[in-house]
Fold this sequence. Notes:
Helices cover about 45% and strands about 20% of the residues. It is of the alpha+beta class. Strands 6, 7, 8, 9 and 14 form a five-stranded antiparallel beta sheet that branches. The protein has a four-stranded antiparallel beta sheet with strand order 21-3-25-24, sandwiched between helices. α4 crosses α8 (about 150-180) and α10 (about 220-230) crosses α20.
Amino acid sequence: MALIGTIRKNTWILVGMLGFGLVALVIMFAINDSNINLFGNPNAMGTIAGEPIDAQAFNQKTQDLYGGQGDFLANRENMWNYYVQQVLVEKEAAKIGLAVGDDELNELQFGSDNMISPIIRQRFSDPNTRQLDRQRLESIRGAIQSQTLEAQDIKYWRQQEELVELTSLQSKMDALVTKAVYTPTWMAEQTYQDQNQRVDFDYVLVPFDQIDDAGIEVTDADISSYINANKAAFTNEQPTRSVEYITFSVSPTGRDSMQLRNEVRSMIADLRSNDNDSLFAVQNGGAADAKYFTRDELRSHPMRDTLFDVSAGSVFGPYIDGNTYKAVKVMDYRTVADSVKSRHILRPLDKTSQEAFNNSYFAEKARLDSLIIELEAGRAVFDTLAAQLGTDGTRSTGGDLGYAGQGGMVKPFNDLIFFQAEKGEYYTVLTEFGLHLVQVTGTKGASQGVRLADISKLIVPSETTEDSIRNLAQDFIDDAYAANQTLREAAIAANMNVQTSPGFERNDYNVQGIGTGQTSRDLVRWAYGEDGDVSVGDIAPEVYAYASTVGYYTDKFVVSGLASIRPKGLAKAANVKNDVMPLVKNEKKAEKLASVKRDSLAGIASQYDEASVQSVQGAAFAAPNAFVPGLGAEPKVLAAVFSTKQGEISEPIVGNSGIYFVKPTYLPAAPAAPNAADNKKSMTQQTRGGMSGLLYNAMRKAADIDDARHKFF
């Protein structure tokens, strides 16, 4: 009773203890659940130099800019990089007093040619004339001032305005740095000598597999020593992981092929009798348009000779063309000019919105139709109208486009003048440049052309075939789990080939050697334990399906296992042991060859079945990518050639393809630079050209960036 009385008198202690226990419990759950964020923004997908990035704002901005078009994974990646650039550049610019004022921003968007932003110039130039489309820009400017710009266009313009400002700030910062770039005279002279000194040499290549592995032992100490000697190659700026994987390829069976052939055969009667050949062809995997093909253009067509010797309406097939079954119908014959001379009057259209485009199209169509009436009645002259109303470079020459060969114009214009228009008649045609009034004024040459419609079926695996391969992959996983095996152990038991991917980062969606896209993103998420802990040696429970880049079908299934975990910084031996082991072994093989007598290259080559003496002439020390004619990229070989005395045989060199012995046969003195001033100027310009990227990368490397996109994507 005394205890109860004491507790009653000190109730606050009990309440405090209960409160502390509750808080501790919640914190425990928060620690164990990465999706709970008690003290920050649960919607934060990271911070950039202290600036939080809100996931909802990020997604909205991505939607506003891309509108759901293109690769959504690439769009997210581009948007993140944009956020990083924007934050870092704006913060750095603020520190040194750089800014873009309102008047300057207006000039960058609507000002004179020498002030206009490269962003505006790129997006608002006529692709045909490469001239800035001032009419379109002024139309947008007016809509902004009158507040009649559509909501979606307002969002797009604001995003663009941000980019214009950011680009200007970056340009100002780049200018500050590039103006300080200087090339010393000695460097210019040395670079010239490195690029122009040439050497002839003989060599012997001993392939790695020609050297017996017996007696070669690689210890953990050897691996650690190799890593320390090659720190740059084994230091990660960001944590990475890699996977081992087995590919189960999916190919069509003979039964799949026959079924597809029969499907094409079953459609031939409809192709022969259908009144709308073009629509029927497109609906059934084929193609048909206004083009007439000449015999030369069809020289690779399997049915070329037959197509010009039958009557219109004839149908042939099924036949194999590449990896498809096809049937083709001869729709018509026509004599096609080799080249056509034409003239036009181009009227641009307002592309600021769909409504504006439609209104401008109907207005310009009515204008051009009225001009045709005047021209046909003889009350107007084409040259005069072109000078008055034309909007491209041909207005000064009466709209004359001269002679053009097949494919020399954009397709709608090309199809009109070659396959539809009659000489002297007037037509209108819509292209990406606007609405044209067109007249064919001359032709040269003539060839017989044939218009075709075809139907096709890509020769792909059936769903039954795909399912059978998927089941094989799943059975492999199940058997490995049942036997408690790693992927490599299970592969050895099944006599299957295992490959290892390069390292990838936590937010990547491309696994080199396997593929890119959402499937690889799912694989990366598994490798990083987004759905549960994962350790080196674990096998992913899921079979990853990869679609073919041609056609809608799965062309491979991938079974993967976690191969390595490499934290930021210098790799630990245990994490890269499988990668380093063969490299160290090659070094030890070279050590074995150090005792080989080097009286002559021929004597060295005679000891190995696949080795012989080869020669190289005119190799340069500073060859691009250390490329050696006949050898490929072998930087260590090049370095050894220039550091070995003429006539002497080098120590064994571990190259990319094997172990080399080299003997310089002609090593002249380095040539003197003929014009140091010009070399200095050229090197300075070249260095300045890459300075923008170097500056930004340095800023990014120095910044504190917490990238937590993996929690959302």
